[in-house]
Amino acid sequence: MDEVSESRRQVAYIVSEELIKVSSLLPSNRGRSKLVHQLVVACGLLRSRKNASGAIPVRPTVANREDLATFHDGDYLDYVLDPAPRRQPGGQAKEFGIEDDCPWFAGLHLYVPLIAGCALTAAQLLIEQKADVALAWDGGRHHAQKGEASGFCYVADIPLVLLRLKRAQGPRRPRVMYLDLDLHFADGVSIPFAKQQQPSRILTLSIHHASPGFFPAHPLAELTPADTADPFTLSIPLARGASNKTFHSIWGSIERVKEAFRPDFVVVQCGVDGLSGDPLAIWNWGLNAEDEGSLGWYVRGILAWGARTLFLGGGGYHSPNAARAWTYLTSVALGSPFAPDLPVPEHSLWPYYAPSFTMEVETGNMSDHNDGAYLSQVDDTFKQLATRLQDVCS
Ligand SMILES: [Zn+2]
C-alpha cells in the first residue's frame, strides 16, 4: 500500500476502562491488558485533541446472550454467565472445562460477554465501513469451544466474528480469511469451520508449532496435504526455533492463498507467544517491520492487501513484551512504525520495562530447525492448494 492510502487508513482501537479491568482478570495473563493499553496511550497512538492522526478509540459493547449463542451452547452460557461463585472443581465445572488451566475466576460472567463484545464491536466497525482496520488486542481466544473452555480461553470470540462478518451485506456475499499467527494451533477456529460446503466463504489458515505432545494435538494441525478434501482449512506447522528467515520463506504461500480466495475481510490472530523472549521459548520470531519475515513485516504485508482487517491478540506470556509488540503493531497499522530502540515513555507502569526500558523485543540465537527441504515441501504443497482454491473460488 502506498503512503497516501496508508495515511487515509481509518484505524479503530477497542478500549474502555471496564475492558481493561475485566480483561486483566484473565488468570493466564493477569494484568497484561492494563500494560498493553497504558503503553499504547503512553506512546501517544490514540486519537485526541492533540493527535488527529492516532487510532480512533472505540468502547466495546457487551455481547448479549443471543450474540454469544450464535456459536456457544446454551448450557455452557448458563454456567459461565452465572455470577454466583463457583469454586468447587468437578461436576459441571469439569463438563465445561472450567478447571486446570481454565479455572473459574471472579468476574468470569463479565469477562465472557465483554471479550466477545470487544471483537464483535471491531467487526461491526469494519462491516459499517467506519474503519478499514480494527484492533482488538483483548480478543483472539482461539482454543475456546462451543461448550467448553480450553487452553486459557473461555470465550470463542473468533468464531463469533467470523460468523458476523460472513453475514454482512455487501456488493457480493463476503468472503472471510482467518490467519492465525499464534504459537499454538487454532483448534477452536479451524475445527468448527472445517468440512464446510464448498466453495466456503470462511477460510482458515493456522501457522503454529507442532511436535509430539505439544498442545493442542489434532490431525488438522499437520501440514495440509495437497490433495485434502477441504482446501479451506489450512495449516502450516513449524518446528522449533522458527525465525524471520522461516517466516519469510512461507509468506509466499500465505499470499498465494489470499490471491486465490480474494477475501473481503481478513481476521488475524496476532498471538505473540512465538516471539523471541516469550517464556515458552519455542520460536525465535522477531518483531521489527524493517526485518524481512518478522511479525511487524507480516502485519505491514497484510495491510498492503487492502482488505478490511481485524487484528486480535492471543497468547503472549511475557506481559511487557506483549505490550511492546501490540503497541508497536498499532504504530504499524497507523502507517508510522516507531524505531524499535525508542525509549519506553515514562508512565505509571514504566518500571515493568526494566532492564532495557526500550520498546525493542530482541531476537535470540536459538537455532532454527525448519530446514530447506521442509520449507520447499510447504511451498510446493501450497502452490497446489492455491491452484485448487482458485478453481473452486472462480
Ligand atoms: Zn498460544
TrEMBL record:
Gene Ontology molecular function: histone deacetylase activity, hydrolytic mechanism; metal ion binding
InterPro entries in UniProt: HDAC_I/II (IPR003084), HDACs (IPR000286), His_deacetylse_dom (IPR023801), His_deacetylse_dom_sf (IPR037138), Ureohydrolase_dom_sf (IPR023696)
Principal EC category: hydrolase
EC number: 3.5.1.98
Recorded superkingdom: Eukaryota
Cofactor(s) the record lists: a divalent metal cation
BP GO annotations: heterochromatin formation
Gene Ontology cellular component annotations, sorted alphabetically: chromosome; cytoplasm; nucleus
All residue ranges annotated as the Histone deacetylase domain in the record: 27-332
Any one Pfam family match given in the protein's UniProt record, by short name: Hist_deacetyl
Record field: transmembrane: none
Keyword set, alphabetical order: Chromatin regulator, Chromosome, Cytoplasm, Hydrolase, Metal-binding, Nucleus, Repressor, Transcription, Transcription regulation
Subcellular location: Chromosome; Cytoplasm; Nucleus
Family: Belongs to the histone deacetylase family. HD type 1 subfamily.
Protein name (record): Histone deacetylase 8
Organism per entry: Serendipita indica (strain DSM 11827) (Root endophyte fungus)
